[in-house]
TrEMBL record:
Keywords for the protein's UniProt record, in alphabetical order: Hydrolase, Ligase
Name assigned to this protein: 2',5' RNA ligase
UniProt keyword Zinc, yes or no: no
Ligase among keywords: yes
InterPro entries: Cyclic_Pdiesterase (IPR009097), RNA_CPDase (IPR004175)
UniProt xrefs under Gene3D superfamilies: Cyclic phosphodiesterase
Gene Ontology MF, one: ligase activity
Amino acid sequence: MYLQGEFDYGLPEPPWRPKRPERVFFGLFLHSKDHSRFADCQNRLCGQCGVTGDQLLPERFHVSLQHVGDYKRLRSKILFAAARSGRCIAMAPFEVTFRYASSFPGRPATRGKPAKHPFVLLADDGPVCELSRKLGVEMLREGLKASDGFVPHLTLAYDRKLVPKQPMGPISFVAREFVLVHSLRGLKKYVFPECWPLSAM
């Protein structure tokens, strides 16, 4: 089982934390057996596209499904409502396939800081979008905000360069569970309050 209570990102600790340091989201994380394949893909694509910025560690590779929110101080009622939303989901395991790489517009260059754009793998539509939609419906029922603009992707790196969308050899992983994530922004740490298996219905 890949999931642990928390893990470090392995990047140098920043000297500050953002104004809203507590982030909560739902995500799909790769199993450890998939890390090396995606790390090889990361190194190959970054080399081909001239991406030289910070690369994510394989343990951080994930697809975000729904963003619950960023908070100055996370209240237990938010985690409670999010957990209730996750418990209502019933779906079978499914494959997530990526066929394109691209950059998303990220932080622009400001005050001497370089631009910081996510370099990502773009996934096919399908069950992953259905899972995001179902979570959104349950989140709204629990009084949380939900996004309907889901673009399934997996971030490989952050760079000042914007890479146009381009095809790549497909790479896939099988999603067998999804998790509720509490990200301690600025402290390089994820905490996983809950995890739900995807099982045949």
